[in-house]
Amino acid sequence: MRNTLRRGWVLAMAALLLVAFALGCAKHPNKEQLTKLEETKQAALAAEEQLKAKDAEKASLEKQLSAKQQELEKCQAEKKAVAGRLGK
To which H or E segment does residue 81 belong? Predict the structure, then answer.
């Protein structure tokens, strides 16, 4: 999951660099170049938003995992106690 986010970010940055090279040293970019630049900016913003969403999802899943691990430990302790009572 993290690799896909990183890959998206790298692709967005590569696209920005590509647009920068396409613009070259011209003092006045043409309409097509400005359109490409705007599209690249939008792609970068979308990638950043997706990264934030995935980070929030990751935090939520980590919280759920922690709760499930605590529940597992509680059940294991209860199982051990019941086994101890049955052994006596």
Answer: helix 31-87
DSSP state of 24: T
Cα–Cα distance between 7 and 60 in angstroms, integer? 22
* Contact indicator for 15, 47 with CB cutoff of 8 Å: no
| pLDDT tens for each residue of the chain, 88 residues long | 667 777 777 777 777 777 777 666 557 778 999 999 999 999 999 999 999 999 999 999 999 999 999 999 999 999 999 999 998 6
Helices 31-87 and 2-23: crossing angle in degrees, nearest 10, is 170
Could you write out the DSSP letters of every residue in 30-56? -HHHHHHHHHHHHHHHHHHHHHHHHHH
> Taking phi first (over 0 means left), then psi (-120 to 50 degrees means alpha), and beta for anything else, what does residue 24 get?
left
